[in-house]
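Q: What does the predicted 3D structure of Transcriptional regulator PadR-like family protein look like?
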Amino acid sequence: MADRNTPPLTPAGFQVLLALAGGAAHGYAVMRFVEEISDGTVRLGPGTLYRTLQRLVADDLVVEVASESPDPHDARRRYYELTDLGRTAAAREAELLSRLVAVASDAGLLGRRRSA
């Protein structure tokens, strides 16, 4: 869920912010995280991922950071991390999704029956 200063998050945008909530990561790690947490049902392709990252950077929700890895192959990778605004936007979106899941549960959509 966005506030007045933050555009609404797309599902891909929220997934990227969620992947970065644990710390800085490069694009491939973000793609793997999303695939793993969705049990393979969601796959962010490179085009979607990098367009999403560009938008998140433009909206000041994510910043590009330097790699701290000594691995020379890592020097070519771009790392990203959440800004304070990005963390706030992700938390608000998680709260909204939590409320939606509660309503879905009450409506019997999650395999539970609604109590009378």
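A (community wiki): The structure tokens above were generated from the sequence. The chain has one domain: 11-106. Strands lie at 25-26, 62-65, 79-82.
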